[in-house]
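In response to the reviewer comment on reproducibility (Comment 2.3), we provide here a single inverse folding case reported in full, input and output, so that an independent group could reproduce the run without further information from us. The structure tokens appear first.
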């Protein structure tokens, strides 16, 4: 904190910076804990040696561009399995999302799931500014986080290749032909294939943000005026909350937070449900006017 005065002008500035590093040391029976239920699976995993409730899923490796690319991978998968024919990753087609063979066994299965994101920020910070000049006063409070990931679960619906509802604007960039440089897969209207919607790093977005939580501007009416109406002090002010946010997140609001615990048991959206955006309602903006009277 720092404060200074120069004539009729006074100012106070405060800044804080914090960082929390966490690592799971040991779990009962050394078994990982899956959490953050969504649809028919789980998004997060808690495991010894890692931070709590990190995101777990597939790593992507672009988009399949040609059938020849898929055929070559299928041949390699068949050789790895010792079969005449096999699929590298199901019935993939050009325009589908290509997953990484993380375990190196020659094909894609659940053993290729790995860590794809961390919901915990590298650091959090906040700032307070107070300015006074004669009868005017100004106050600002802001806070932010840096380095955390958000799992944007709404992509399951808003970037669905077979959705018949409103979609994100990014769907205009979906794959259409070989050579397209995009991470949005082909349209697949009417198909029940959900391979492209498997939980992967496609869902993981930067959650860093800075938000000005509150701005207030006030004016204190001079005493020689207020005494005429029998009032010792009159201050009028205008206050704006959550009006300004700075971030690159594509969802409604990057301030996601942590799921709640229900009673003595952990619900599917309990305290291991961190940084999961299922379409939560964003913080509302408010503008208020006030009057402080002292008699």
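Designed residues, in position order:
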């Amino acid at each position: 904190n720092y404060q200074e005065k120069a004539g009729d002008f006074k100012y106070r500035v405060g800044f804080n910076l914090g960082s929390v590093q966490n690592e799971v040391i040991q779990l009962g029976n050394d078994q990982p804990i899956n959490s953050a239920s969504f649809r028919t699976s789980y998004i997060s995993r808690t495991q010894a040696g890692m931070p709590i409730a990190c995101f777990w899923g597939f790593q992507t490796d672009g988009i399949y561009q040609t059938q020849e690319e898929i055929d070559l991978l299928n041949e390699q998968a068949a050789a790895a399995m010792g079969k005449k024919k096999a699929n590298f990753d199901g019935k993939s087609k050009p325009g589908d999302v290509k997953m990484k063979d993380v375990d190196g066994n020659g094909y894609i299965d659940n053993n290729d799931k790995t860590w794809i994101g961390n919901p915990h920020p590298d650091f959090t910070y906040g700032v307070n500014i107070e300015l006074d000049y004669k009868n005017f006063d100004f106050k600002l409070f802001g806070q932010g986080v840096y380095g955390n990931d958000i799992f944007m679960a709404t992509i399951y619906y808003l970037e669905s290749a077979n959705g018949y509802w409103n979609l994100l604007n990014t769907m205009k960039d979906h794959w259409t032909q070989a050579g397209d440089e995009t991470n949005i897969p082909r349209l697949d209207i009417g198909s029940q294939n959900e391979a492209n919607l498997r939980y992967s790093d496609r869902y993981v977005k930067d959650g860093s943000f800075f938000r000005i939580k509150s701005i207030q501007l006030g004016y204190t009416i001079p005493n020689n005026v207020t005494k005429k109406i029998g009032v010792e002090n009159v201050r009028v002010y205008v206050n704006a909350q959550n009006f300004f946010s700075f971030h690159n997140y594509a969802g409604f609001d990057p301030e996601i937070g942590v799921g709640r615990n229900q009673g003595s048991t952990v619900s599917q959206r309990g305290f291991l449900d961190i940084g999961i955006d299922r379409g939560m309602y964003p913080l509302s903006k408010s503008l208020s006017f006030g009057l402080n009277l002292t008699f």
